[in-house]
Write a structure and sequence with these properties.
49% of the residues lie in helices and 18% in strands. It is an alpha+beta fold and 201 residues long. The protein has one domain. Strands 1-2 form a two-stranded antiparallel sheet. A two-stranded antiparallel sheet has the order 3-4. Strands 5-6 form a two-stranded parallel sheet. It is globular and about 45 Å long. 32% of the residues are buried.
């Protein structure tokens, strides 16, 4: 389950490119969030990283008093609220592609606090990934998707998942996920090098 050679280089390349391309978007979002309710545009929260080491994740704030704001609805729909996480990637705390970054509460709720689930934290969490794109819900679904990714991770697979994530930014999560689930037999076929793997939606 070790990452392939070049994964860190891909992380830095994508993070640097995204920083340039999305700079105007990030600036506009910062202003929009501030104008919406006058509060700080960034939200930070402790998450569990590689080797179960804690780190602080960055996101654009989408909630006010536990309620999704008007701007927050748009940010969540497109996944743009996660743009600040490229800072976490540059810091080496996250990868662009990897398992979903969980809170300590999530880990306890899913029952992944024991040593038997250390494999889940053998890699850096990712901004995107199979679980994030296919909305794995519940311990069994999320575990299956995370284990599948860690076993089959490759440059080819990561590039495809990044491309799908860009489509989410443009078209929205629901539309892209509907397209993925509309594949034959209700499966997303992903080519990883010469291997093909299927994930039931």
């Amino acid at each position: 389950m070790n990452p392939y050679r070049g994964k860190r280089a891909l992380d830095l390349l994508v993070a640097g490119t995204a920083g340039v391309l999305f700079a105007p978007v990030a600036a506009a979002v910062t202003i929009a969030v501030w104008l919406d309710d006058g509060a700080a545009p960034l939200f930070s929260q402790p998450r569990v990283g590689r080797g179960r080491e804690p780190f602080t994740i960055l996101k654009f704030r989408t909630l006010r008093a536990s309620t999704v704001t008007r701007v927050g609805q748009c940010l969540r729909h497109t996944g743009i609220d996660e743009l600040p996480q490229f800072v976490n990637v540059c810091r080496g705390q996250m990868s662009v592609v990897g398992p979903r970054p969980l809170t300590a509460t999530d880990v306890a709720r899913l029952g992944w606090s024991d040593a038997a689930h250390d494999w889940r934290f053998s890699a850096k969490p990712g901004i995107t990934g199979l679980s994030q794109l296919l909305t794995g819900r519940g311990a069994r679904s999320s575990e299956r998707l995370d284990r599948l990714y860690l076993r089959r991770q490759s440059l080819c697979l990561d590039v495809q998942l990044i491309a799908l994530s860009l489509a989410v930014n443009v078209l929205g999560k629901r539309r892209v996920r509907r397209w993925i689930r509309g594949k034959p037999c209700g499966r997303l076929m992903v080519t990883a090098g010469r291997r093909r793997m299927s994930v039931r939606s």
